[in-house]
Amino acid sequence: MRTLLLCLFLLAGCASKPPQLIVSPQVFWPQAPSLNQTSFDFYLLDQRSNMNTLVIYRGEYSKGYATANDLRAELEQTVATALKARGASLSNQSGRTLTIQINQLQARVNQRPLDHEVVNRVTMTVLVQHNGNTFSKAYSGDSRQIAPLKADIAVIERELRVLTEQVLTDLLRDESWQTEIRG
C-alpha cells in the first residue's frame, strides 16, 4: 500500500503545470509633442468575447488559459505613459474621450504529434468622442509560425507581445484619431 501511495505521489509531482502566459508590451513611440496641451479622458476596455489569451488544441481536445498578469491594466498603463510622453493631459473632466477597445488578443496553438502551429491575432478599435461626434477606427495584426515538436510557451509569449506592440504602435502613430481628439 505504501509503495502505491509513493508512486502516486511521485506521478502527481511529474504532472505538467498549466502554462503561465504574461503579455506585457512596451511602446516605442517618438517623444514629439503632437498631443501637447490636449486634454481628454482615456479608457482602455477589454471587450474580448473569449478571455483566454492562449488556447491549445490537441486533436479534438482544447484548453484555454488567461494571462497571469492583468492584461487590461498592463496595456492601459503602457498606452497612458505613451500618451503623456506625447504631451497629452489625461483627465476625467474633459469633454473629449479616447477609448481603446481590445477586441481580440489571442494565440491559438494546434499541437500535433511532430510539430505545432501558432496563430496570433490582435484586434483593437480606437474611439474618439467629442462634441457629440464619434470617430472609430480598427487596427489589427496576425502572425503564424510552424515549428517542430512541442510548443514553447516563452516563444508564444514573445511573439504575441511583439504583435501586440506592432498593433499598438500602428494605432498610436495614426494621425487620424489624433486630429479628431485635438478637435
Can you walk through the features of this model?
The chain has one domain (29-182): Rossmann fold (3-Layer(aba) Sandwich). It contains four helices and seven strands. The protein has helices at 2-14, 71-85, 153-173, 175-182; strands at residues 38-46, 54-58, 61-65, 88-90, 96-111, 115-130, 133-148. Strands 1, 2, 3, 4, 5, 6 and 7 form a seven-stranded mixed sheet that branches.
What's the short version?
By secondary structure, the chain is of the alpha/beta class. The chain has 4 helices and 7 strands, in the order αβββαββββαα. β5 and β6 form a beta hairpin.
Task: Draw up the topology in text.
Elements: H1 2-14, E1 38-46, E2 54-58, E3 61-65, H2 71-85, E4 88-90, E5 96-111, E6 115-130, E7 133-148, H3 153-173, H4 175-182
Looking at this protein, list some descriptive labels.
alpha/beta; Rossmann fold; 7 strands
Query: Runs with pLDDT <50, length 5+?
Result: none
The CATH topology comes to Rossmann fold
DSSP strand count: 7
Structural class: alpha/beta
